[in-house]
Design brief:
The chain is α/β, with parallel strands linked by helices and 108 residues long. The chain has three helices and four strands. The protein has one domain: STAS domain (Transcription Regulator spoIIAA), CATH 3.30.750.24. It is globular. The relative contact order is 0.13.
């Protein structure tokens, strides 16, 4: 089964994209564009996702970091996204610390 994306307007102040099937890296740009074009709060319903690759997981982790709600993700996917978010946070923190060291040296 390939990836299918259905836009569901919840009638309030958010939009849900129901994603089904296998999400592959070639679908990331389509999902990114759909999320970006919305002015209201966005959620991704992942209940019927069967398989993803690493690029998709990274994209989902970045979505979650930016306020997109990930709904009904299968356990394996939720765990993987959480791990990816932790890695993203670690890289951000490391980058902040390195920039701080550079600033200190530049002042000396």
């Amino acid at each position: 089964m390939t990836c299918r994306i259905e836009r569901v307007d919840d009638g309030e102040n958010s939009v849900v994209f129901r994603v089904t099937g296998r999400i592959q890296s070639e679908h990331v740009e389509t999902l990114r564009a759909l999320v970006a074009q919305e002015s209201r709060r966005v959620a991704l319903d992942l209940a019927e996702v069967t398989l993803v690759d690493r690029k998709v997981v990274r994209f989902l982790a970045l979505c979650a970091e930016n306020g997109v709600e990930l709904l009904y993700a299968p356990d394996y996917l939720g765990d993987w996204v959480s791990q990816e978010r932790a890695e993203i946070d670690e890289v951000k923190n490391r980058g902040s610390q390195e920039r701080g060291v550079r600033r200190k040296r530049a002042k000396e």
